[in-house]
Automatic annotation (TrEMBL):
Obligatory cofactor(s): heme b
Protein name: Dyp-type peroxidase C-terminal domain-containing protein
Database matches in InterPro entries: Dimeric_a/b-barrel (IPR011008), Dyp_perox_C (IPR048328), Dyp_peroxidase (IPR006314)
Gene source species: Fusarium xylarioides
Domain of life (superkingdom): Eukaryota
Record's keyword terms, sorted: Iron, Metal-binding, Oxidoreductase, Peroxidase
A Pfam family reported for this protein in Swiss-Prot or TrEMBL: Dyp_perox_C
GO CC terms in record: cytosol
PROSITE patterns per UniProt: DYP_PEROXIDASE
Domain Dyp-type peroxidase C-terminal: residue ranges: 130-287
One of the record's GO molecular function terms: heme binding
Length: 364
């Protein structure tokens, strides 16, 4: 199965980066065929559905695991029928897109929970202290292997999503020193990992490995919303949206964040955030929805901070940029690596990047 075949099955909006957007979580008035047609006619850039609902509409079973989420400890499973994730390059454009379909959505919906969100200009989070998305797997190789479903053919390019609407406990965060915050997150403001704090830092607890010691990735497209207490530099919360091709992986990550005593989570970041709503979702392939699909690897955009290489184009300073360029056949010397080699290189790069972790403590 080639990288292109998998990517070209996805909804076109899924791999696009989110700078600004609105996330609409919808409860429909009815689940009948007329409502189904109405919602499919107005699907946004990324449309996801309650797995049970989409299964009933498509005549198949889509099993999901919810044991950890259903405990209601630190996370919430409030459900819903549909999630529309509208992405845009500006706040105004996102609002304009939503305004075109809002009336039609209201006509078929009982409730619509709308979160208006966006990134800071400096692409930082945590009150501007940390670089956002520094290890996000948005290269074509990782998307094809860890984010999008590859088979069967009729569902190729589909995915699963996890959403949580978090707010931050800024009074508690404000009592901590900068070093303590860095220890909690597992990075310093420059983006460097802090392995000495690995056992309880967020970036360590959010990493899981399979039996081959490969890190199983998720694509994170979270956006900040609001401001806390009128403090423009502190976001009120985070609308967390993530995608992967194996729904149980989300449960494994949540379990690893909480540890064996969920009321006292091992991930210290969980002490300063509160979840209000969210759940698991099925993200149909473009063919299932009848919406535009990814048409070229140009639709898989590289984060600007990875675009650094030598003037002659032969020396790559990071693996993300290398995988982006090679998967698109952009090797100056010609004869770029094939998909199989890129897959192996992707796993090797992942092992190199995560060598700071104690693998024995993160195996699943």
């Amino acid at each position: 199965m080639s990288i292109n075949e998998i990517l070209f099955g996805a909804q076109r909006g899924l791999p696009l980066p989110a700078s600004f957007g609105q996330v609409l979580t919808i409860r429909l008035k009815s689940h009948d065929e007329e409502t189904k047609k109405a919602i499919l006619d107005i699907c946004g850039l990324v449309a996801a559905f309650c797995p049970k609902l989409w299964g009933s509409w498509s005549g198949r079973d889509i099993p999901i695991h919810t044991e950890i989420l259903d405990r209601k400890i630190k996370f919430r499973n409030t459900g819903g029928d549909v999630v529309l994730y509208i992405k845009a390059t500006s706040k105004d454009l996102a609002a304009k897109i939503v305004s075109k379909v809002e009336k039609r959505l209201e006509a078929i919906s009982m409730t619509i929970d709308k979160v208006v969100a966006g990134k800071r200009k400096d692409i930082r989070v945590g009150g501007g202290r940390y670089v956002d998305g520094i290890t996000n797997p948005n290269d074509p190789v990782s998307l094809a292997e860890d984010v999008l479903i590859s088979s069967p053919e009729e569902y190729r390019g589909a995915s699963f999503a996890f959403t949580q609407k978090f707010t931050f406990d800024w009074p508690r965060i404000a009592t901590q020193s900068g070093d303590t915050e860095d220890e909690m997150v597992g990075r310093n403001p420059d983006g460097a990992s802090l392995p000495q704090h690995a056992t309880h830092s967020h970036i360590h607890r959010a990493h899981i490995r399979d039996k081959n010691q490969d890190q199983r990735k998720i694509l994170r497209q979270a956006l900040s919303f609001g401001n806390s207490g009128g403090h423009a530099g502190r976001e009120k919360g985070l609308m967390f949206v993530a995608f992967c091709n194996e729904q149980p992986r989300f449960e494994q990550i949540l379990k690893h964040l909480l540890g064996h005593e969920p009321e006292n989570p091992l991930d210290r970041l969980m002490d300063v955030v509160k979840a209000h709503s969210g759940g698991y979702w099925y993200v149909p392939a473009a063919k299932e929805l009848g919406v535009p699909a990814v048409t070229s690897l140009d639709d898989v955009m590289e984060d600007s901070h990875w675009d650094v290489r030598s003037p002659n184009g032969y020396l790559f300073y990071n693996s993300q940029d290398y995988l982006h360029q090679m998967s698109q056949g952009r090797y100056i010397g010609g004869d770029p690596p094939n998909d199989r080699l890129l897959s192996l290189l992707g796993r090797t790069f992942s092992h190199w990047r995560d060598g700071w972790m104690d693998c024995s403590k993160v195996r699943v």
